[in-house]
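WARN  no MSA supplied for this record, continuing single-sequence
INFO  ligand: manganese (II) ion
INFO  echoing inputs
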Amino acid sequence: MSIPEPVARRTQPNADSAAEDYLKTIYHHTEWQSAPVTPSVLAATMGVAPSSVTEMAKKLSAAGLVNYEPYKPLTLTAEGTARARGVIRRHRLIETWLVDEMGYDWHEVHDEAEVLEHSISDRLLDAIDSRLGHPTRDPHGDPIPSADGSVESSPALLLSQAAIGTSGMVVRISDRDPSLLLSLAAAGIRPSTTLSVVSRDASTGFIVRVAGATESDADGGPLVPVSASGGSSIWISAPA
Amino acid sequence: MSIPEPVARRTQPNADSAAEDYLKTIYHHTEWQSAPVTPSVLAATMGVAPSSVTEMAKKLSAAGLVNYEPYKPLTLTAEGTARARGVIRRHRLIETWLVDEMGYDWHEVHDEAEVLEHSISDRLLDAIDSRLGHPTRDPHGDPIPSADGSVESSPALLLSQAAIGTSGMVVRISDRDPSLLLSLAAAGIRPSTTLSVVSRDASTGFIVRVAGATESDADGGPLVPVSASGGSSIWISAPA
DNA sequence: GCGAATTTTTAGGCGCACCTAAAAGTGCCA
DNA sequence: TGGCACTTTTAGGTGCGCCTAAAAATTCGC
Ligand SMILES: [Mn+2]
Ligand SMILES: [Mn+2]
Ligand SMILES: [Mn+2]
Ligand SMILES: [Mn+2]
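INFO  complex generated
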């Protein structure tokens, strides 16, 4: 007859996933290019109003995660950086798991990871990490921060900033645009593919030569067009 | 120089996970025992104030998921039942996955599933379901609703309601109390274990005899004490 | 069948993460 | 150096899911 136990079920639904997304986005902006992260930039990236950024900036500042002074760009504190890397670690391990074990293709994983990164426990994250053998790169070539917070950074060059004739290995491709990922996969372009820049035109886009999987295909594989926006989504290894 | 794309990142954090938990809890109350689900009962189970239940009841009623009339018990509409089963399907498949593939023990999975049940996509749920071979029972013996919404129900008897001398197979053990699960596992009691009720005392608890894994151990295995609350957490198959 | 105890609903608030509109600050450049 | 465009902050407001306290309805014991 006992009432079914007042189970303290209120595991708060989603903790502070909004805050986590702000931290992650601030970190992201400094990860590859490093322009100052102003409220307007952050607002545009996150799809919120600038005033929302100001509000959150104050909260994160009060929590010691963000350095905020009115009218100045936002930066992460050491603690904020650590937290951001934690979220990114989750995101990328989840993406890797989805591709390696759950039959997802690389263009399908971003949105799922965007949600799960806030829900998964440390325990489960560790289990995934172990199963995958502690990977250091996600399916898009992004480095996976290690559990202790260190990140392997490889210097890279945006395709849009490479001179004609430059060649290098694809290091990383932004996972934000699924259709780009789909078309690049079709063209055989993935992290570790070797490319060379054949032509570039700010408006039209680029043409790259894709080296075959084997080195034998010496003087070049197929020519592939890459849109202008694709050019700002592909990083190649910086020439030595 | 382009601003980093106004990605419509607002995948709403957690959809309506609160609503899902209400539906699930209402369903739960009718799944094993069927007392009327009043606001006070629901409030106690969910750990919220009764007034919160009334409010949510109105919302769910407006959404066509719950039948609500002031001062009457809540019931689920057909649509509400379907939704509840969907959440429960997610919950139990996640639990099964955690135990079968991720190295969790059965007493550790409930809380993780409580969160993930609201975050996982249909796509991922299907992938998990396939990997596991479309299981029909979770680690605690609870039936997993199928994708089309049907549920296999096996008539069962609460240990606390079984007469002395009754024996039967454990069909299901509530997953709400991890410490109970831990001690039952230590005593070798799991779904499909055969038990017989040796003694019962409403206040002290119960003593059950656990049959060995093999039938050979005919006239009985070890005697195990079960607390009073444990008695309301273990279901055994109803005698034929 | 009536009053008291209990349950349920209503009323009014709170924090969160968002918004729009208005005010204030910054910085460029004529 | 002053004006003006642009950015940022402030002010005030919304919906959600929760709360407490008070009011209303129901139920139960006599
Ligand atoms: Mn996210
Ligand atoms: Mn990625
Ligand atoms: Mn839940
Ligand atoms: Mn279970």
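Chain B touches chain A at residues 2-11, 13-14, 17-18, 21, 29, 41, 44-48, 98, 102-104, 108, 111-112, 114-116, 118-121, 123-124, 127-128, 131, 176, 229, 232 (CB under 8 Å).
INFO  checksum written, moving to next record
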